[in-house]
Amino acid sequence: MKNVKVFKALEDGPKTIEEIVEITKLPAMEVRRYLLRFVEQGKVESYQKEGKLFWKIKETSEAEEEFKYV
Question: Which candidate, 25, 7, 4, 20, places its Cα nearest to that of 54?
Answer without folding.
Answer: 20
